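A brief tutorial aside. Many learners find it easier to grasp structure tokens once they have seen a single protein encoded end to end. The record that follows does exactly this for Transporter. Read the sequence first, then the structure, and try to relate runs of similar tokens to stretches of the chain.
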Amino acid sequence: MKRCASRVLLACLAAFGLTCNTPASASDLPNLNLGFTSFLDGAPPAGPGWYGTQYLEYYTAGRINDNAGNKVALPKQNINVFAGLTQLVYQSPFKIGGAHPGLDVILPWVASAHTDDGLGNVALTSRTGFGDILIGPFIQFDPVMGPDGPRFVHRFEFQIIAPTGAYDPSKAINPGSGFWSIDPYWAATLWINSKWTVSWRLHYLWNARNNRPYQGLGADASSSQAGQALHANLATEYEVMPGLRIGLNGYWLRQISDLKVNGQSVSGQREAVWAIGPGAMYSFSQHDHLMFNAYFEANARNRPEGTRVILRYVHHFN
């Protein structure tokens, strides 16, 4: 879904000459975890075993921002995307130095992507389909226990994004990226008390070269390389009654190096955004959990600024 939003801006800039340096340049980050994970993120909810998770997401935006955070000059800037992720996780019961090895596999997909630039969508060609597969071996540490239960738990995952998704360099909106990425993270949950927790997931993103770059970069563009980025998910929640938790969740993204075209850096195109919103989690049992998270974006740079709603269901196969 994030991939779609980035390519919408790229297409608009390329088609209507809105960039300062070149007629077709913008950031081109891959599909990222912006708000998909939130409460109690430091560990699977029921210990070792197999987990299946289904995410559903709706993203809508009515503006696309330039490098200064101003709305780009298009008659309309409407974006509506319905997408999701299907995830399978295995955490081993065996321990190595107090930690459990595991594997995380995620398949994103885009069911629909509708845009309106007010000019007949001459730039916003799109396609739907499966996105790039994410594969991540991880180490899950046992929780640090206190007198009233767990106090802290965390995990390290080395996540790899493989360019397996639908990708067409002539399209502005693609489910796939066309290049490899690595996006390792550290996730943790801290218990303030037995009912109140704070969680975070901190990522560093590195992207390989794309030898089939988006055609909007220009006829002489033979390769591109998206910039490096930092991004994070943050959440805090409180158990208001048995099984029900409510709280706040947010995410933050900042690109820290420039897009490269034919090996040359393109300045003024780094992406940034942050978002905050309410969330809730209902646990039917230790093995089944339903989460709802909403995010309202602000201070976007070189990307759309809108609203993201995510519904997530987690099942532990016991």
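Self-check: The domain at 2-317 is CATH 2.40.160.40 (Porin). If you spotted this yourself, you are ready for the next section.
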